[in-house]
Amino acid sequence: MRFLLNLLLMLAVALALGFGLSWYALSDGRLFGAYQSGPWVAWPRAGSPAPDPYSRAFLTRNGALQLGQAEGLQFVAGADSDGRKLDRACRYRIDGTTPVSTFWTLVPTTPDGAGIARPDGPPGFHSARLSRADDGSMQLYVSRTLSPLNWLEITGDGPFQLVLTLYDTTALSGTATGQFSLPAIIRESC
């Protein structure tokens, strides 16, 4: 009887560990094919002709159309630079620079991918229409309340994420020269 109980316990531990690691690899995946820089996470192999098994599983679970490797790269942040989940009740400042790219967009969405910008306003920021500092850096604000400079009004309540898409970029392609940096996400008020 003791042998049967030990066998069932080992089987339960093995199943929990196997399913737990699989869930982690498909949802977070920072250890399995994803690239993380601060709060930003990207799956650089997602648009390749032959993605690794973890990227393929992420694509299947995500179900969204991905950019090809030569077309661009998408970074997603569900937390600020201090690790706190993004909340629509707060005001956030996106501060810094983006890697070199021909064009980029920054769109706030629900965790499921639905846009949360004001319906009669712009859906997000893009590189062609925003004011920058003399050194090329930017300060973007995302909140439900009025903010200075580059501001995007969001609607609703609950968590959200920021999706930064770099089009025609060399970031993470192997041909990039030097390190690149992504902007910080700073919670200013709630």
UniProtKB/TrEMBL annotation:
Pfam families documented for this protein: DUF1214
Gene3D superfamilies: Domain of unknown function DUF1214, C-terminal domain (2.60.120.600)
Domain DUF1214: 72-170
Superkingdom classification of source: Bacteria
InterPro entries membership: DUF1214, DUF1214_C_sf, UCP009471
Name of the protein in question: DUF1214 domain-containing protein
Organism in which the protein naturally occurs: Devosia nanyangense
Lineage: Bacteria, Pseudomonadati, Pseudomonadota, Alphaproteobacteria, Hyphomicrobiales
